[in-house]
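Hi R.,

As promised on Friday, here is the backbone we talked about, encoded as structure tokens. Could you run it through your design pipeline when you get a chance and send me back a sequence?
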């Protein structure tokens, strides 16, 4: 079904020109979710790379509403300011299957800020913290649950057969994507992996320790 959005991505990229990157994410493969990138020169990202900061920056924003967040500020890897928008895509059953993202490089337009002031007006989403937050919309859990389920299934169909190292790697990926910043994330992942929430806390502590020792 996501294939039906490929022409939309191409149309948007051609309409707004080479400064507009359009990305189509497949939520069934969060570890390699970027399946289409138009105008990749804007950020240098490649097809087959992970889902990025969807949970941290978009789903946790107080302005996320009606399955979308429009006109929020991000930065390219080299520091250029981008004007970004993200919409969650659903199938006929209402299940979240993907995300369509627009990243517009506005650095050239900023030199004409007075004339382009209205076009450049944007608001930052709520800054992410290490504090758990309430999820404002039940639909957000649909997206988060899909990420969790697909990552777990990528290691095999039977959770019971996963060894400890595999479970730690799953927790590492979910930790990096901000899943544990959502209130209830620990408990949700624990149920999915068939372990106690205290076990997940231990895995998270191990992941954090590894990140610190690696200098991240």
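Update: got your reply. Pasting your designed sequence below so it's all in one thread:
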């Amino acid at each position: 079904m996501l294939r039906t959005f490929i022409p939309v991505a191409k149309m948007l990229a051609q309409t707004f020109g080479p400064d507009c990157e359009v990305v189509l994410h497949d939520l069934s493969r969060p570890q390699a979710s970027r399946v289409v990138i138009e105008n990749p020169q804007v950020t240098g990202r490649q097809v087959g790379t992970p889902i990025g900061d969807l949970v941290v920056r978009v789903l946790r924003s107080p302005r996320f509403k009606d399955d979308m967040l429009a006109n929020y500020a991000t930065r390219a890897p080299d520091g250029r300011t981008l004007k970004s928008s993200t919409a969650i895509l659903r199938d006929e059953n209402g299940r979240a299957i993907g995300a369509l993202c627009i990243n517009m490089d506005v650095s050239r337009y900023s030199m004409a800020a007075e004339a382009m002031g209205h076009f450049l007006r944007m608001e930052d989403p709520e800054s992410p913290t290490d504090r758990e937050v309430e999820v404002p919309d039940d639909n957000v859990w649909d997206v988060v649950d899909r990420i969790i389920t697909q990552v777990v299934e990528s290691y095999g169909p039977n959770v019971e057969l996963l060894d400890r190292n595999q479970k730690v790697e799953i927790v590492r990926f979910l930790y990096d994507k901000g899943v544990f910043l959502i209130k209830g994330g620990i408990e949700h992942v624990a149920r999915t992996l068939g372990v106690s929430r205290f076990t997940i806390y231990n895995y998270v502590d191990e992941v954090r320790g590894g990140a610190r020792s690696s200098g991240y």
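One thing I noticed while checking it: Residues 138-213 form one domain.

Thanks again,
M.
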